[in-house]
Amino acid sequence: MLQEKITQYTAEINAFSTTKADELEQFRIKFLGTKGIIKDIFDEFKAVSPEEKRTLGKVLNEFKQLAEAKYQSLKEEGGQAQGGKDAGMDLTLPGEGFEVGARHPLALVRREIVEIFNKLGFIVAEGPEIEDDWHNFSALNFPEEHPARDMQDTFFIKKGGEKGDIALRTHTSSVQVRMMEHGKPPFRALMPGRVYRNEAISARAHCFFHQIEGLYVDEKVSFADLKQTLFYFVQELYGEGTKVRFRPSYFPFTEPSAEMDISCTICKGDGCQLCKYSGWVEILGCGMVDPNVLENCGIDSKKYSGFAFGMGIERIANLKYEIKDLRLFSENDTRFLSQFKSALI
Ligand code: DAH
């Protein structure tokens, strides 16, 4: 009786070959479980005659070893096929998602602008956000009584000092001065950074924002170089066919000075709310570096000339992404920030 059962189950075990976790578990329960076949057979064995015990004992032990070995080898085989310790895991289930961060829109725009000018050989330079009067105003040819020096505009930190009052820089033009003071022409640089102005915070104004300054100084640099450089920049940033126009303007540190408009990125010049139905939007200020500025920085203005420009990064980002409220850039609201996830990393 017992011998027959063992023969039958041995055949069953030998024929069993699946490595599927759930079927293997059923096999274990059926043969090796606490209420399994091997337990039953050992119970029955207790009742057989002593002669039978002698022969059957060995058979029974071999049978038990066979079942255990089969189970172990199939389990290992299955585990390896599914990647070791993860045996039994359902690999068809979807993975657990995790949040990926997004680049800030201002960082995206800054990088895009820097990459365009990199192609023209401009390097990137930076300067301090806490500046003295000399670098922020005087060296840049601001007259003593210029309203930009006023308490209304500037956040002063300390009155007096070796190089004048200490303040938070109001523009990145200060980095031009630092660059020219500390180096020798030619200069070809882009200077991005944060600037501060004492303004009431609203959708259209903020007490801090970001600018990118550009400077090109060499022998025989002309206004034609300025126009061509900025024209190239606009074609790269907004696409070929974008028109530019220069309007005369005034900045203390450039002569002549201009403001540059581009044909409206939304309506392409037909007139819309963004361009206030003019077809044009202003994007930057520029001009030929005033000889006084070159001399203030120890550069021979008879030998060298140059152009400079400055633009607000928020302004460029607003045009690109149609963001209507400046405050969104600094509020860290992830509902706003996560919209830039798909933008280039
Ligand atoms: N610094 C100016 C501003 O903050 C921007 C600017 C205008 C920079 C003309 C320049 C420039 O370099 O040539 O409004």
From TrEMBL:
Cofactors required: Mg(2+)
Record's cofactor remark: Binds 2 magnesium ions per tetramer.
Domain of life per record: Bacteria
Subcellular locations according to the entry: Cytoplasm
One GO cellular component term: cytoplasm
GO BP: phenylalanyl-tRNA aminoacylation
Catalysed reaction equations from the record: tRNA(Phe) + L-phenylalanine + ATP = L-phenylalanyl-tRNA(Phe) + AMP + diphosphate + H(+)
Broad class of enzyme this protein falls into: ligase
Keywords on record: Aminoacyl-tRNA synthetase, ATP-binding, Cytoplasm, Ligase, Magnesium, Metal-binding, Nucleotide-binding, Protein biosynthesis
Residues annotated as binding Mg(2+): 255
Enzyme Commission number(s) from the entry: 6.1.1.20
Major subcellular site: cytoplasm
Subunit structure: Tetramer of two alpha and two beta subunits.
Protein name in UniProt: Phenylalanine--tRNA ligase alpha subunit
Gene name tied to this protein: pheS
